[in-house]
Amino acid sequence: MKLKVAALALVMALSFVIFIGQKIMVLRGITDYQRPLQKPHQKFAAVSLAPPLQLLPPERYLENFTYSGIRMFGTKPCECENQKGLHVLRFPDAFRPDELDSVKQRRKKEFEHFKMRYKTLPRDVLISQANSPLAYPLYGLEVLPLATLLLPGLGVYLQGGELSQVTLTASLGTFTTLADVSEQVLQGRGEKTMTITSPHVEWVNFILQHTTYTSTVYNIHAVDTVAFVMGPYTAKFPIVIRQPSIPWLYDPGPAQNINSLVTITTKTFLRYEKLNILIKSIHKYYPSITIIVADDNDEPEKIQEPHVEQYFMPFAKGWFAGRNLAVSQVTTKYFLWVDDDFVFTEKTNLEQLVRVLESTHLDMVGGNVDGNLFSFRLLYEEGNEEGDCIHWRGGSYGPIEGFPNCVLTSAVVNFFLAHTARVQSVGFDPKLARVAHTEFFIDGLGSLLVGSCRDVTIDHQRKDQAQDPARADKMAKYNSYRSNTQDQVTFKLQLHYFKNRLKCYTKR
Fold first, then answer.
1. Rounded to two decimals, what is the model's pTM?
2. What does the DSSP 8-state code read for residue 311?
3. Dihedral pair phi/psi, residue 473, rounded to 5°
4. Which fold has domain 258-507?
5. Among 232, 369, 370, 434, fewest CB within 10 Å belongs to which?
6. Tell me, what DSSP letter sits at residue 76?
């Protein structure tokens, strides 16, 4: 009994302690909650106020939009800024101050004519409105000049409200519909603006589903932007008007061997002895392949070798004129360009270069010379009315899929295999009579896709001192033509300024 009484007293005492403890804890919790209540509330109120919207400073994001140190985000016109280790050429500096204004006026006039002829794609950005009830083809419509196209995907989708009028407007073509409807419903059949007036959505959609566009202005490559309007809603979509190019195919013949696929081209000037060494080395590995030689020597010598076509030019006509002549006579799908002081070796594997071009979208592919791979990138940057910028950087854009020894680049050395028709479409500017190479790839930027492979090699012939006085005189004469004079350098800069509409060039 005493034990029961003691236990009961102990339980009551513990219950009291627990009750008091819980009370204290609850009160403390309430106090702890109420005490800082105003402070977090004030902080929350301050955070909930949206800060003013602002942009990051340019130095925070421009570094993310550069490639090889060149800004590739068009926030402002390009500039060729002087930097350590950077070679900068400013083409307007090649002109006298008293002639620059006149050159600028002529260049501006020619550029406007160029844009009129070639700049046919629209620069307007087409934006789809949010929650627009209009359905339309955003991309992919193409029609032949003066031909007719059924416009797919046109429609209106209303959720409540009453439809009244829909309009289609073009600038280079006209509209009609295959639907049999009255003039009260359809106005402008066969015109640049066609209007559908009806309160019935199903009628309007039936007409739109059978609407055609007819090109009425002959142009081999243009873009018409169609406006599709219903009340406050406007949608725009492009229709490309394009005349496909007629294919130019080269028949490789039943044998389909290297001789029917490739012609070797070169130009020679004042060094027949080196040309003869080159030809003999070619015949060692490719005895039946055609070799075309453009020759502008002052005392021509007939090459007495089989499978050689020799074309004579006026004396010192020039480097690019010779290239044009040689390539103009190629009748095979590909041509290989080599300098007349190169020499073929067992590593000059033309079949490998052919495999690269046959398996890729490349227009030309270079090899390496003396075991050294030459490739560089030409990066274009838009400018302003003063012109654009070109930046020369070494290296490549990355490997070519399927060919681990090849990379994608902008330009290669004077040892390359190329699609004949593609290079002929760019051509070599005959105004450049002496040292010129990069200029061709600048002209071809945007037209030619170029690769470079390290596993196909050609060598330079050994350079030795001429013992024969006559030969020594010829080599001295050759070297005098080989070097650019200051006048020729100035002419190059002026040519880039006017012809390519460039204001500057950088190289690293």
1. 0.81
2. E
3. -65, -40
4. Spore Coat Polysaccharide Biosynthesis Protein SpsA; Chain A (3.90.550)
5. 232
6. S
Q: Which two tokens stand for residue 200?
A: 């019935």
Identify whether the C-beta of residue 74 lies closer than 8 Å to the C-beta of residue 58: no
Note whether 239 and 141 are within 8 A (CB).
yes
SS3 label, residue 56: coil
Least confident of 118-122, 245-249, 388-392, 500-504: 118-122
User: What are the residue boundaries of the structural domains of the chain, listed by start?
Assistant: 134-242, 258-507
Task: Give 411's pLDDT tier (boundaries 50, 70, 90).
Answer: very high
pLDDT tens digit sequence for 329-363: 999 999 999 999 999 999 999 999 999 999 999 99
Q: What does DSSP say about strands 398-400 and 403-409: parallel, antiparallel, or unpaired? A: antiparallel
DSSP letter, residue 82 = -
> Looking at the domain that runs over 134-242, which CATH code has it been given?
2.60.40
**Given a cut of 60, is residue 295 above it in pLDDT?**
yes
Q: Please determine whether the domains at 134-242 and 258-507 fall in the same fold group of CATH.
A: no
Cβ atoms of 322 and 339 closer than 8 Å = no
**CB within 8 Å of 156: residues ≥ 6 apart:** 133, 134, 135, 163, 166, 201, 204, 205, 208, 230
CB 435 within 8 A of CB 414: no
